[in-house]
Design a protein that fits this description.
The structure is a homodimer. By secondary structure, chain A is mainly alpha-helical. The first copy, chain A, has a single domain, classed as Farnesyl Diphosphate Synthase, CATH 1.10.600.10. Helices cover 72% and strands 1% of the residues of chain A. Chain A has 15 helices and 2 strands. In chain A, strands 1-2 form a two-stranded antiparallel ribbon. In chain A, strand 1 and strand 2 form a beta hairpin. The radius of gyration of chain A is 18 Å and the shape is globular. Chain A starts with a helix and ends with a helix. The mean pLDDT of chain A is 95. At the A-B interface, helix 2, helix 6, helix 7, helix 8 and helix 9 of A face helix 2, helix 6, helix 7, helix 8 and helix 9 of B. Chains A, B: Belongs to the FPP/GGPP synthase family. Chains A, B: Keywords: Isoprene biosynthesis, Magnesium, Metal-binding, Transferase. Chains A, B: One of its GO terms (molecular function) is prenyltransferase activity.
């Protein structure tokens, strides 16, 4: 590929990012009472910056099934709430202890730890409130399925479980299978939710979901390998955060286990494989294909 | 009142507590992988100890409408997930910095801060997963209403918003109206959810909910005044946690603003008022009445 694919993704991603920022701005007006600081911290964490890859994935998958833009936006907003809350908590001193994120101070540095913990907790609630609201979809069955899928993707059998494994990685030497499982949970579960969500809204039968599941799993792993490569070779200014942290902490990653060259090969292989899973779709899946390419070519 | 009411509440509360422990035990089997520590921390925080007042309130209100015990138990379990997660996060060094809770070490002391943050986050997800599951109620509309109500009660317009006000209370001198608002959010919102949840499941019309709302609001405030009195006069061994902390932190409470005697009077008045709101109900509301009495008479 593909300046073409990169340009397609970037144009759509920046449209999505603007929509997400606008929606957060509308959802989080500052109250004129002592809770003001909490809302300021939620807004600080949620608005501006970020690739908004997850809302983009939701929209790209919703495009396959002619799902309304409003529904896709609200589902994307809910996933982004979970993603942002997890970043706020993961950046805390007790967790990854990061000072910079998305090119600005982390939330606990810009505010304080207590406010950051609460702001993360509130974004966590907001995700489910958004999904459960009838503005997301008229059918309560669809909404309740979305809530279930997101709670699973974010909890101990998903993202948070992966984060726990990541904490344990400092005290253990994980092999490739365990690192793969860790990343399938830590970043893969939420990425898979983005694609599953569209399948839920479209009321797709299980056999129709198989290819999409495969796509999601493959781009999730490719995304993480690319992240590991950026952690070793990337530019911290472009990344907007500290790099080289996994190696310093003695954690095994795809790059430490495979080496840079084989890791890059593996990412390319996963991207090819992810696109093969979309063979049943025509041009309507071109954005999903372009996102797969973009995921391993991005510089942040 | 009422040794009689106290005995009724205690018998029912200990039955509820046993059911809740058993349900958490079944929901949280220990996995044989590096996420084990996370589940251990979730179990440590969730199982054993605690008055289980909120699940008891759910059951007592569900009794009014012949709602199934299974449904009432699962809704109570979800509220308790939120309550426990909030205790785990509130006890963190960056928040209230407590070492003891329910007579044992707080979760971050028994494990570590990172694990405690994640365990709280996972219990937070679990609450919504439980409510959204069809085992809670066959009607998805009811489930989605429960999710919405719990997300609101727990987020920035509810419990977490109250906790933010509580943090700000150290730097400000709140008046009685502001302390009332703080507590209406911090403990009242979740207590109100317990009663609202039964009304949601019973599909009660808004006019039928008015008395129950009044009951919930009054016992919520009475509960907090009793808590403030225990903080001043209680036995830390019975309480299972450190006391006297609000005064040491210079925070205004109902007791600091009203004095012990007037605070006690106000609690008694709220209890009487809460029972008056139940005038439309007969003997089927006796447990709710007994809970109101118990709330101000408890020693922990």
């Amino acid at each position: 590929m593909a300046g073409g694919a990169g340009a397609l993704v970037k144009a759509r991603a920046s449209a999505v990012a603007a929509e997400i920022d606008k929606a957060f701005d509308r959802l989080l007006p500052l109250p004129d009472d002592p809770r003001r600081r909490l809302y300021e911290a939620m807004r600080y964490a949620a608005i501006g910056g970020g690739k908004r890859l997850r809302p983009l994935l939701v929209q790209a998958t919703c495009d396959l099934f002619n799902i309304s833009r409003d529904c896709a936006l609200r589902v994307g907003l809910a996933v982004e709430c979970i993603h942002v809350y997890s970043l706020v908590h993961d950046d805390l001193p007790a967790m990854d202890d990061d000072d910079m994120r998305r090119g600005k101070l982390t939330t606990h540095k810009a505010f304080d730890e207590a406010t950051a913990i609460l702001a993360g907790d509130c974004l966590h609630d907001l995700a489910f409130e958004i999904l459960a609201n009838e503005e997301t979809h008229p059918d309560p069955f669809v909404r309740v399925e979305l809530v279930t899928a997101l709670a699973r993707a974010s909890g101990p059998a998903g993202m948070a479980g992966g984060q726990m494994m990541d904490l344990e990685a400092e005290n253990a030497r994980f092999d490739l299978a365990t690192v793969t499982r860790l990343q399938t949970l830590k970043t893969g579960a939420l990425i898979s939710f983005c694609i599953d969500a569209a399948a839920i809204v479209a009321r797709l039968a299980p056999e129709g979901r198989r290819g999409l599941h495969g796509y999601a799993r493959d781009i999730g792993l490719a995304f993480q390998i690319a992240d590991d490569l950026l952690d070793v070779e990337g530019d911290p200014v472009l990344a907007g955060k500290a790099l080289g942290k996994d190696m310093a902490a003695g954690k095994e990653t795809f790059v430490s286990l495979l080496g840079v060259d084989r890791a890059r090969e593996q990412a390319a292989l996963l991207v090819a494989q992810s696109k093969a899973h979309l063979h049943g779709f025509g041009a309507e899946a071109d954005l999903l294909r372009a996102i797969a390419d973009y995921i391993v070519e991005r510089d942040r």
